Amino acid sequence: MSLTGRKPSEGARGPLLLRALALSVSGLLGTVIAFILLSGVEALVRGQGLGLLGAAWNPAGGKFGILTMIQCSLLLAFSSLCLGWFLSLGCCCALNGLAPRWAARGLLGLLTMMTAVPTVVYGFAAVFLLVPLIRDALGGTGFCWLTAGLLLALQGVPTMTFVMDGAVRSLAAETRLTATALGLSPVQHLSRVVLPLASRSLLSAAVLGLGRAVGDALLPTMLAGNAIRFAHSPLDSMRTLTAHISLVLSSDIGGGEHLSLLLAGALLLTFCAVFSLLARRLSQRARGARL
Questions:
Q1: Is residue 280 situated within a structural domain?
Q2: pTM exceeding 0.85
Q3: Which listed residue, 60, 163, 197, 224, has the most CB atoms within 10 A of its CB?
Q4: pLDDT tens digit sequence for 85-131
Q5: How many CA atoms are closer than 13 Å to the CA of 184, on its beta-carbon side?
Q6: Contact in structure between 37 and 269 (CB atoms under 8 Å)
Q7: Is residue 21 one of the residues assigned to a domain?
Q8: Contact 145/231 with Cβ under 8 angstroms?
Q9: Closest of 243, 72, 234, 92 to residue 157, by C-alpha
Q10: What is the pLDDT at residue 134?
């Protein structure tokens, strides 16, 4: 009998069950990932090599290149991340001492409410509010890179802010006594001690925001204009890989369109994996430099 009154064999069932569940989930995820990647390879083979990675999209002429969509997806994701990450960092700092308590309390309530708002509501509101504003002020149709980027940045702010806030609050509590003994003000404590120590979590928030921006389908479909061309200006319309997948899946068209869909899914998965591995590498370097 153990100290808990249970037989050793009974205590071993728990870890064994957890290991079985972990292996099952890992196997399922591995199967899904392998299926997506193999489908992308099959699409390349059936699409005559690198033809699907060309810039020309002309279904009537048998051309199904998705290079323009790859460029638009990366442009939209990185631009919305740049804006959303800095907004999130500002919100995190405001929640941790740079704003009055009443303002921080109101900001926290607003961010919490934003997490409960469906994506379609953001898009629906932008169609009737932001699109006409951009069209009247800057020209164009209003359904463009700028509109979709602003909404994607806004949608990602609550998630990134809460990831940052959790790490900053924990580190601030651990270092507050030492910072007070050194005579640091709350602003100096936050900017010179807490934020550098929280660099790994700030980077994790950026990766999470980038993954959401790359993988979002509804906002680019509703707001980006769905024009299959390279984007050179924030007022240009574009079609992203996720918007392409949603539009092709909603039709009964086969052949090259569906091959481009399979390749788009494999590329999205590859992008997210590369971003995650790069962020992990950078965080390990940052941790090694601090040590």
A1: yes
A2: no
A3: 224
A4: 999 999 999 988 888 888 889 998 999 898 888 888 888 999 999 99
A5: 18
A6: yes
A7: no
A8: yes
A9: 92
A10: 93
Residue type, position 35, single letter: F
Q: Which residues pair with 63 in a beta bridge?
A: 58
Q: Which CATH number does the domain housing residue 128 bear?
A: 1.10.3720.10
Give the confidence band of 287 by pLDDT, cuts at 50, 70, 90. low
Q: Range of 108's domain?
A: 53-290
Closest Cα partner for 49 from 34, 65, 61, 60?
65
Tens-digit pLDDT profile for residues 217-268: 889 999 988 888 888 889 999 999 888 888 887 665 666 677 788 888 888 8
Total of domains in the chain: 1
In sequence order, what DSSP letters do the residues of the chain get, joined into one string?
Answer: --TTSS-HHHHHHHHHHHHHHHHHHHHHHHHHHHHHHHHHHHHHHHTTGGGGGSS-EEGGGTEE--HHHHHHHHHHHHHHHHHHHHHHHHHHHIIIIIS-HHHHHHHHHHHHHHHTS-HHHHHHHHHHTHHHHHHHHH-S-S-SHHHHHHHHHHHHHHHHHHHHHHHHHHHHHHHHHHHHHTT--HHHIIIIIIHHHTHHHHHHHHHHHHHHHHH--HHHHHHSB---S---STTS-B--HHHHHHHHHTS---THHHHHHHHHHHHHHHHHHHHHHHHHHHHHHHHHHH-
Residue 9 has pLDDT above 70, yes or no: no
**Residue 45 within a domain:** no
126's tokens: 């932008």
